[in-house]
Amino acid sequence: MVIARIVQIINLCFILVYIVGGVYLFILVVRALKKYLSSGEQRSEQKKIKKSLGESLKDHRIRCKMTQEFVAERIGVSRQAVSKWENGTSEPSTTNFIALAKLYGVKAEELLAEISD
């Protein structure tokens, strides 16, 4: 009888531990979601910068009346690489960035100034 009562108390303690653990885990998930949702401004800001870099590169290419294929051949990359730079999927390396600036007839600093706005 006493042993059965002790077993019941132990089982109740385990149940309470599971409940408290579940509540704590729920609180952690809610906090993580709130933090993720509040970081949306930063993610969209980073996307804007990448997008504006791509737009700037595309604008200069079009201004110079060049095709993506021509640009790719001149600086030694694939046409797909140029396309990715222009749509913001990736960014050119420093060497390629400088080569693009020279090809488009602008200073690299001017290109950087355009994307920081």
Protein architecture, described:
The protein is an all-alpha fold and 117 residues long. It is 83% helix and 0% strand. It is built from six helices and no strands. Helix 2 (40-63) packs across helix 4 (79-87) and helix 2 (40-63) crosses helix 6.
Task: Give the key terms.
mainly alpha, 83% helix, 117 residues
How are the SSEs placed, and which strands pair?
Blueprint: H1 2-38, H2 40-63, H3 68-75, H4 79-87, H5 94-104, H6 108-115
Entry summary:
This protein has 117 residues and is an all-alpha fold. It has six helices and no strands.
Report the strand count.
0
Radius of gyration: 28 Å
Strand/helix succession = HHHHHH
Helix count, per DSSP? 6
How is the main sheet built? none
Any idea what the shape is? rod-shaped
The proportion of residues forming helix, as a percent range, comes to over 70%
Beta-strand level of the residues, as a percent range?
A: under 5%
